[in-house]
Design a protein that fits this description.
Structural class: alpha/beta
Radius of gyration: 24 Å
Largest sheet: 8 strands, mixed
Oligomer: single chain
Strand order of the largest sheet: 8-7-9-4-10-12-5-13
Distance between the termini: 20 Å
Low-confidence stretches: 5-33, 42-62
Helix content: 25-40%
Number of helices: 15
Mean pLDDT: 86
Length: about 550
Amino acid sequence: MYFLFIIGEKAVIIAMNTRGLSLPLESSLVSYQLEMLRQAALASLECHTTLNKWDGALVQNTPTRNILWICADDFSCEACQPYGNRIAQTPHINRLATESVRFDRAYCTAPLSTPSRQSFLTGKFPWSIGVTLSPTPLPDYELTIADRLRRHGYHTAAFGKTHYYADLKHRFDKAIDHRDHAEWLETHGESSLPPSTPNGKVLPDWRPFFDPAAVWLNSMVWPYAASDEQMYGTYVAQSAVEFLSKPPVEPFFAYVAFHETHSPFHFPVNFEYRCKPECVEPPEPRVEHSKIPEIFESLTWKEKQGIIASYHTCASYMDKNIGLILDALRKYKLVENTLVIFTSDHGYLLGQRGRFEKHCCYEPAVRVPFLLRVPGDTAGGAACDKLVSLVDIVPTLLDFCDIQIPRELPGRSLWPLVIGETSDWRRELISHYAYNEEACLVEEQWKLVYGTGACYWDDGYQLRNPVFGPKFELYDLKNDPDEVINLAETSKEQQRAMRMLESLEEAILKTHINQNAIASRGGSLFERLNACLAPPEILL
């Protein structure tokens, strides 16, 4: 039998036999389930102590501190004007960047939407909450930033994609998603396409992996069968604008998550030809043909041009909607007391290494755009090159609201970087892609990518002739930012690669949901690390 004891601020689990003797927890499944129980107890404990301390209200006589968080989907720094893209038509994101701190080395914790979003909304790593695969729902006991702020008197609202994979609208005071848009279309009617559709062609149903990649990645550069006002992205933006036009009495936290720029790169008919394929220069793969996922092997140069043009057109459409929201902040005089964040859930490869996706640990997939505008635009135009993780967002927002940062959160508040105190900052961070059982450790100059090679998941991006067995890649990001030259097996850098591998294992294991079960098995460094990189969901 098992006993759960609450001691001060700790939750302790003890296994006892019928004679009252303590027993080791040998079963991975049992320890996983008990860890769920322990964390649920801690969440309940935090709720109890928080309500006792704050009584559900903000400290009196403090200025209103609103938060607006805009999140894109699959949006790459490679397609973002503030990060150096010359063909991107994103004037509103660019305007926000001139008023913000721009983080040039921000990374996601997973190059996949579900684990990345559930990670940055809870402020914990995917492997810490047991969510590393696409269909895994957010555990009921995990607290999100919206949960924490609500307990301190904030009015919370979500517009668009949360990716909880569960009906958790109750986590917000107000929540708008696809279902609301569908009801809105029924009420307002779906008018016919505008007569000005240039070529009369519109996107077919999205069928990834059933249709050729050239089709489901929209190499045709065809618009979605809707005008601007009918689009889901516009509906999300207009809903956020309506919210800002009549803000609640309480300070608010508004999370606006667009589906753009996810494939098939939706944009309305009146955005057609915003970016022309002939103006696009696809990057050279710069890797052996055998290392390009099979599904992309047959793409022609012209099709690659079309895919990238569709992506940039979609980004331009999203930028228009971001402009609506930023204009509303000024119109309703909310700029001076609202913190604004713009991020993506992860990056996206646009032809680099021959790929058009994100399911890997290379820089375009794990590096993300990240802008932070302080109320009043006091830090506008600054750039920061320190290593930043999306798990830093929750601590940053709590710090902004003068709320104590829970000790179990692994991230750090970004306020020291915002005000220029950068002497004591992290020197490494991690991103993990569970489907390939691989992870990367990023340092200031160096990056290690390790894959177990023990399991080959069917995520649709397999190589024609996959190589099984451990994968070691080491890149000098300063001198080789495109990650072309693998230094892992050179005699000069073997020692560095092994040191970074040990750091990767230590960092993941100490924050892993199955830490006790993995550590109790013993084994070599590689055995422990391989256990850490396997999806924790498979134990259920």
